[in-house]
Structures are given as C-alpha cells and as structure tokens.
Amino acid sequence: MTDPKGSVDRLRGFLTTQVAGPLAALLVAIVVFSATTDTFLNPANFSLMLQQSVVIGTLAIGQTLIILTAGIDLANGAIMVLGTIVIAQFALDGNIVLGLMLGMLACAAAGALNGMIVAKWKLPPFIVTLGTLTVLTATARLMTDSQSLPVERGLLTVMGQGFSVAGFTVSWGVVTWLALTAGFAYALGRTAWGTHVYAVGDSPNAAKLNGIKVDRVLFSVYVVAGLVYAVGAWLAMGRTPIADPSAYQTANLDSITAVVIGGTSLFGGRGGVVGTLIGTLIVVVLQNGLTQAGINSLYQQIATGALVVVAVLVDQIIRRKDR
C-alpha cells in the first residue's frame, strides 16, 4: 500500500526545489502555445526547438558554474567563437583532430586566464570578463581578417547529425547537451568539488574558515567552464558549418538569461544546471510559440526581459526569507 502522507510530503518537497517554478512555467507555456497554435505540438517543431537550444544551453552550463560562485562571465560566447576559429583553421590544413584538441585548449586557456585574474588578483568577474570579451572578439577577427571560415563536414559537423524516432529527430548535439547537464548535476550535487562551489558562492569567508581553498575552487570553475565552452564550439559547428568571428554576439546575455530564468541566484550559492536546462527551454519555447502565433519579435524580447526581472525578484524574495 502507498503512503498518502509520504506522497504529499514528497510533493511538498519537490515544490520547494529550485526547478519547480521554472518547470511549472515551461509546462504552462507548452500548454498555452499548444492550444493557440496548430503546429506547436508537431514532433518536427519540438525537434527544432531542442536543436535551437543546444549551443546556448551548453554555454549556460558553464555560465551556471560561474554564477554559482557569485561571478558572471560576459566572455563565454567570445571564448566559444575563438574555439571555432582555432578548430577551423587547423581543419583547413587537414589536422581535424589536432584542431579540436587545440580549440579545447584555447578555450580552457581563456577560462584559466579569467580564473587566475579573478582568484589571485581579486578583480570583479564582471570587469575581467568584459575585458576578455573585447580582447577575444578582436583576436578572432584578426585571426580571420574578419572573414568566415568553412568547416569541413564529417567529424566537425557530426553534432548536427542524429537519429529519428517516429518523426522526432534527435541530434548528437542534443544528446551531448543532456549528458553534460546530467554530468554536472551529479558533480554539483554529489561530489566534494560541487559542495565547495556552492560554499564559495554562498560565503567565501565562511568557506575559507572551513578549510576550503577558495582561490583553487574559483580557478577550477573558470577552467571547467572554458572546457564546456569548447564543447559548445563543436556543437555550434554542427549547427552551422562555418566559423564566423562575428557569430553569437549576444550569447553571453542569452546564457545569463537561461541561468536566471532557471532559478540560479545571481548572488551565488543557490541553483543548478537542471534549472538552467529548463530555463533554456523556456526561452526557446517562448520565442518559438510567439513566432508561430504571429507576435512581433520585439514583443518576444519584451516578454523574455520581463521573465528575467521576475526571476531575479523572486530570488531576492527567497533570499530575504532565508535570512
């Protein structure tokens, strides 16, 4: 026999979690657009929305790690674009595997640079990553003379391929994004490193008093985020087989939007990558549904911006109650 009281307690417990609110918002959006449009529920449309979520969703994973430490990364899109440029340049010479490895190394190095400056020199992450954004954007354009580079189809674009089930296409990019989310959900929730990330974000001074090496944790977070952005570079080439130094100019803001809507606190110490995945889907579902409903794209931006403000307001209210 089931225990009704236990079921109620579990439901109450779930409703107090970080993902409950964003998940409810996502379900409401799906129901509304399914009722008001004719093609929203089509398998092909759902497949399209998933594929549209992949790159920003992956960048948002790295952004989540940094925001959990009470930081922010304005350079994540620029780091990813630099990765695509490095990969494409070596691929043009026939060194595809080497290009992938060096692209990942370049992204990790950019993350390490940010992490070192933030952790060792104690500069604000906003200023550090704003500077890195400018430097890397200019570097990518100098490396290519502001021209797009073609990407050889095959290993570099495999993330755009996939398999189909009952008319629903799932790309390997989507599989990779979901796998990364699951992996980091485990790392944040079940490992000492994840515990330290939350502790540093909640209170670096308290974390230091408890024996946590705050500088080391901060540095590791930025390096790991850089590696995640490198995966994003691979996924981006699967979506569009070119390396464009001017691409993804709003990726930093888009990823921050997904993180905030997903329930992660901009003040650090609370949230997670599962909520970020849901936040990414909310943004894409909102844009897709409003487009199908014939709503002007400017109103889509207004709706997304309003969601961000509401999410931050809710976070502030929750933090005040917890004090």
Question: Explain this structure to me?
Answer:
The protein is mainly α and 323 residues long. It has one domain: ABC transporter involved in vitamin B12 uptake, BtuC, CATH 1.10.3470. Helix content is 73%, strand content 4%. The chain has 13 helices and four strands. The chain has helices at 4-15, 20-36, 43-68, 76-92, 96-121, 125-144, 172-190, 192-202, 204-209, 214-239, 251-261, 273-292, 297-322, and strands spanning 149-150, 162-165, 168-171, 242-243. The strands form two sheets. Strands 1-4 form a two-stranded antiparallel sheet. Strands 2-3 form a two-stranded antiparallel ribbon. A hairpin with a 2-residue loop joins β2 and β3 (168-171). α4 packs antiparallel against α5 (96-121), α4 (76-92) packs parallel to α6 (125-144) and α4 packs across α10. The model has no long low-confidence stretch (mean pLDDT 92).
Question: Which terms would index this structure?
Answer:
mainly alpha, two-stranded antiparallel sheet, two-stranded antiparallel ribbon, globular
CATH topology: ABC transporter involved in vitamin B12 uptake, BtuC
**If strands are numbered along the chain, what order do they take across the biggest sheet?**
1-4
Class in CATH?
Mainly Alpha
Count of alpha and pi helical runs: 13
| Strand content bin | under 5%
* Estimated structural class: mainly alpha
Largest sheet: 2 strands, antiparallel
Q: What's the CATH architecture?
A: Orthogonal Bundle
In percent, how helical is the residue content? over 70%
Q: Provide the residue-averaged pLDDT.
A: 92
Oligomer: single chain
Distance linking N and C termini:
40 Å
Number of E-type strands: 4
| Radius of gyration (Å) | 20 Å
Shape: globular
Report the order of strands and helices: HHHHHHEEEHHHHEHHH
What number of structural domains do the residues give?
Answer: 1
Poorly predicted tracts of residues: none
